[in-house]
Amino acid sequence: MAETTFEPRVVGFLCNWCSYAGANLAGTSRIQYAPNIRIIRVPCSGRVDPLFVVKAFQEGADGVLVLGCHPGDCHYRDGNYYARRRYNLMHGFLDFLGVDARRLKIDWVSAAEGKKFAQVVSDFTQQVRELGPNP
Amino acid sequence: MIEQIRATAREILQNKTVDLVIGYEVGTRGATRPAFICSADEVDRLIWNDACTHNLTNYVRGKRVPPKRDAPPARLGLVLKACDARALNVLLRENQVPRGDLYLIGVVCEGMRQDAGFATRTLGDLQPRCQTCTERVPVVYDSLIGERKTSEVFETSEVWQELDRLGVMTPGERQAFWDAEFARCLRCYACRQVCPACYCVECTAEQLDPEWVGIGICTPEKRFFHTMRAYHLAGRCVGCDECARVCPIGVRLDLLNAWFRREVQQTFDYQAGIDATTLVPLATFKPNENLEL
């Protein structure tokens, strides 16, 4: 079989108010970023139950990216503070269960950070590409 | 101690402080079983020994449902060990039972022995949770029975050693370990039924709308179920290890819960059930905390 380069499947949970708008900005600004990301728009990073992430891995995602507003900028005032605590625990727990911790990333991207969005997605995709397919 | 428990139970039943006392009675083959005592004549069934391993707080909610429609819910007397008292605090914190309807007979516990329904895994006679227990005296009670002895407390137990052993493995090795554990799971949900903190009327695992927790008996879906179960207990599990005790094929559920207990303790300096007022870490936040992501 011919050797094909591995292209990771990355699922991105993006908060509607900051990160999704940031992705929009990246698009309208014609900034190039890795096309591997499948974006799921959610109201808030606090909506992203860590079990969504587990489900994504179970269904074959190679990496999961959770992006929300910067702490203090949440549209719902404090959703991302809860998310921060949850993912602080869940990150380690997934690692304990045997999912490489580098396959999950949570970061903050504001609506004005189109460039940062492209950077985060590209860097993360590259990181997952190096890790190989999720077993 | 048995006589004191019986005397207290007799007193609160006679003066109608409670309608029902839940304690322990002699079971089969050297084990004990939960006893439900409704009248003062029956209190002599109650016993206390090192096989009273059940966490009776699990009955607190169900047994209070009134038998008749307009009848007031039963007031309960409950025999409590140290770990059970913490579980009760979790329930009190989450408003699952009014404190006024309970009379708590706290018992100083010197540890439960391994063969009291718990698969023998380690050296020593005590169950792993009891080996490292520094508490012994219940954190909440109405009357306390027994005195604290200066008994030996182990530095570490098999559970923590196993956590450390898993901690130095590669992710792939850990996944192999957990796949082997989860592959044996029957999905009988005994772990959920026995857990005092798992009280949702409709469990996520059986929720049909949306049905996004698969009910399949295959390893990926079982892994998902166990991840969910452990995560829902993050910061709420008191470490009574009932889930691991009742598991018919011995899945290491105690390790999953212990991981979260250690992590929550280290990150948020929080231990479940120490009091009935502090919020669970995942239900609150501090704006300026510096958490690693």
What features would you describe in this structure?
- The complex is a heterodimer of chains A (135) and B (293).
- Chain A is of the alpha/beta class and 135 residues long.
- Chain A has one domain (10-130): Rossmann fold (3-Layer(aba) Sandwich).
- Chain A has helices at residues 19-28, 50-58, 79-97, 114-131, and strands at 10-15, 37-42, 63-68, 104-108.
- A 4-stranded parallel beta sheet of chain A has the order 2-1-3-4, with helices on both faces.
- In chain A, helix 3 links the parallel strand 3 (63-68) and strand 4 (104-108).
- The model of chain A has no long low-confidence stretch (mean pLDDT 92).
- Chain B has 293 residues and is α/β, with parallel strands linked by helices.
- Chain B has 2 domains: 2-145, no CATH class; 158-283, no CATH class.
- Chain B is built from 10 helices and 5 strands; from the N terminus they run αββαβαβαβαααααα.
- Chain B has helices at residues 2-14, 59-62, 82-93, 128-131, 158-167, 171-184, 190-194, 219-232, 242-246, 253-268, and strands at residues 20-26, 32-37, 76-80, 102-107, 143-145.
- Chain B starts with a helix and ends in a 25-residue tail after the last helix.
- In chain B, 39% of the residues are buried.
- Chain A binds chain B through residues 50-51, 54-55, 58, 71-72, 78, 81-82, 84-93, 95-101, 105-107, 135, and chain B through 166-167, 171-179, 204, 212-213, 220-221, 223-224, 227-228, 230-231, 234, 259-260, 263-264, 267-268, 281-282, 285-287, 289, 291-293.
